[in-house]
Amino acid sequence: MPILSSNPMWEAFGLRALPYALYGGADTGECVTTVERVGDEGSADDWHREWTATADRVAAIGEECERREHWVSMREAYFRAATYYRVSYLPLFGSPVDERLKEAFADEERIFLRAAEWSTPAIEAVEIPFEGATVPGYFVHTDWTERPRPTVIHTDGYDANIQEMYFAHGPAATRRGYNCLLFDGPGQGRNLIQDALHMRPDWETVVKAVVDYALTRPEVDAQKLVLAGWSFGGFLAARAAAFEKRIAALIADPGQWDQRENLKVLPVDPAVVADIEHADAALFEPFEQWLRSPKADPMLRWKVIQRGMWVHGAKNLWELAKEMARFEISPVAGEIACPTLLTAAEGDPVAAGAQTLYDALRCKKTLVRFTEAEGSGGHCEGLARGLYHQRVFDWLDETLG
Question: What is the pTM of this model?
Fold first, then answer.
């Protein structure tokens, strides 16, 4: 049964806000009433307008609380507003970047940073040096001291950013005594929206720069550095862990295998997929034309055309397929040396390769399955963040001693 809307796209996007009520990133009633105003038959324009209206209204509450020096109420309102600005622009994904998306992202970042100034534990905006420039991050402190602590470095996937990752991971980590370093790499957040930097398969180069930075901080215990990734970040983090030997543990939510495997769903001969690099681009044109037509499932169009091509900088479906085939972990999975936890949630198609990766690992390993019966099915255990954090952090506590 749908929770917010019988429209699959609005249900999926609305559930990108609702679970964060657990950690102060949303309020249930605000999400419900906003989706109701959009309606099941609402358009992308309707969605953006109504979520922006809710974000503006909640941000105004924060401004009034700030004026009257109600600092906790101000912070809570600003955090919720940041989430609503982000959710407002999800259906606007694509290249060229919609100006409304740019504006909403700027509002999201601005209002989040305003809340972060008054956050306890402290949320510190950082710029991490990378290839002559910087990538953005947040260092979330467990306390106000510089005592070295276990620290979790989190990487996200296709369509999240460091603001969303804060609510998904930050409070759960700091409550248990872990610092949390969140970062957006190429193809994510500001790097994609403002700087047009696209996703890259050699994620180990990005993680190396982030680990280099983390180890300059006195708050970080160099012997208890954890790398974690969620959604597509579960693949990226695992790939990076095969090269990065300074991490003490790896969490991949969910575990994944070579992305070429996912291309088998394309309506082309499997032999074409096997040799995608030398395929005829014309073989992909009929399916791409269908995806762009009103006949196609809107969510599939969004995932492939609006999100996939944009994130990877692909001009057509063939270019996207070729690029996806470059994301491989099979040649290096056996090089992952640290204790590793993989998740696999029932009903999450992204987790299809979790068992394959688990079987390929030679390190100390754990595979944690989440089920629909316990309310934790679906992509990245989205509606069961508390259960996810309990299992993952209990494992981490025991693993790091």
Answer: 0.96
